[in-house]
Amino acid sequence: MVANLPEEQAQEIDGFLVNFGPVMSKGFEAMGPGIWTYETIRQPVTPESRVSGTIVTCTNPKAVVPMITQFGGTMGLEPRDFDGNTIFSADFLPMSIGVANGFMATGDSKLVEQAMRSMGQKDLPSVADNQAYKAAALAVGGEAVISWGYIDLPARWGFERELLEQFGEDDSKLDNAVGKADDSSVAKRLGFKVPGNSNDVLKTMDAAMVAKYFGSFVWSMKSDSKGFVTRAAVMQPAK
């Protein structure tokens, strides 16, 4: 792939690979295949309340830490001790990277600290006990998939609506999870009036109404002989 790039770019990438290639290869070989990404809402609600983190299985921390040290240094990330484990962070960045107990955690600094603190503890609540998670996992079923996930649609809707109520219709501060409606000719022929703006939908329906008619949004991806197949569905409301 590098050979197909313009000569100047190829030389730059070649130099990068010479310097970082060995440590990258060892680091990436020690990670995966399991990857979990999660998102939560931090109170009180602000445009920055949505925070996320990612946890990756790590079979050899001794191979991963040098890679983080080398690349993290270019970002200003410095190692620090946290409950006997190492976290790479910087005062001016909201994200951190930590390695502990067979996992690497990245993302929002507070979530990384929470993940590092809970790794290896057996007596903590499990996501497997969460009703939305259990319903989503049941919908995906036991078939082998490459990846899958879910969004607690009523909770996410409530967050979007609260943002709208607090900060008005400034699109730069709203996530617009509802999306812009498509006032298509098909909808018109069927006699439906489709709102032209997602904010209009948020104003019409609150989280309780969404929870009455809808459950979580669930998706999964699997592979077959022709490529990849993605399945997505909105579940029935929780009973």
Write the layout of secondary structure elements.
Blueprint (H helix, E strand, L loop, with lengths): L6 H23 L1 E11 L8 E9 L2 H15 L2 E5 L2 E5 L5 E6 L2 E6 H10 L12 H10 L6 E5 L1 H15 L17 H5 L8 H7 L2 H7 L3 E8 L2 E8 L5
Antiparallel strand pairs: 1-2, 2-6, 3-4, 4-5, 5-6, 7-8, 8-9
Walk me through the structure.
By secondary structure, the chain is α+β, with helices and mostly antiparallel strands. The chain has 2 domains: 34-124, no CATH class; 129-234, no CATH class. 38% of the residues lie in helices and 26% in strands. The chain has 8 helices and 9 strands. The chain has helices at 7-29, 61-75, 109-118, 131-140, 153-167, 185-189, 198-204, 207-213; strands spanning 31-41, 50-58, 78-82, 85-89, 95-100, 103-108, 147-151, 217-224, 227-234. The strands form 2 sheets. The protein has a 6-stranded antiparallel β-sheet with strand order 1-2-6-5-4-3, with helices on both faces. A hairpin with a 5-residue loop joins strand 4 and strand 5 (95-100). Helix 1 crosses helix 2 (61-75).
- The count of β-strands is 9
Sheet with most strands: strand arrangement: 1-2-6-5-4-3
Total number of helices: 8
What is the C-alpha radius of gyration, as a whole number of Å? 22 Å
**Structure class:** alpha+beta
N-to-C order of helices and strands: HEEHEEEEHHEHHHHEE
Strand content: 25-35%
Number of individual domains: 2
Percent helix among the residues? 25-40%
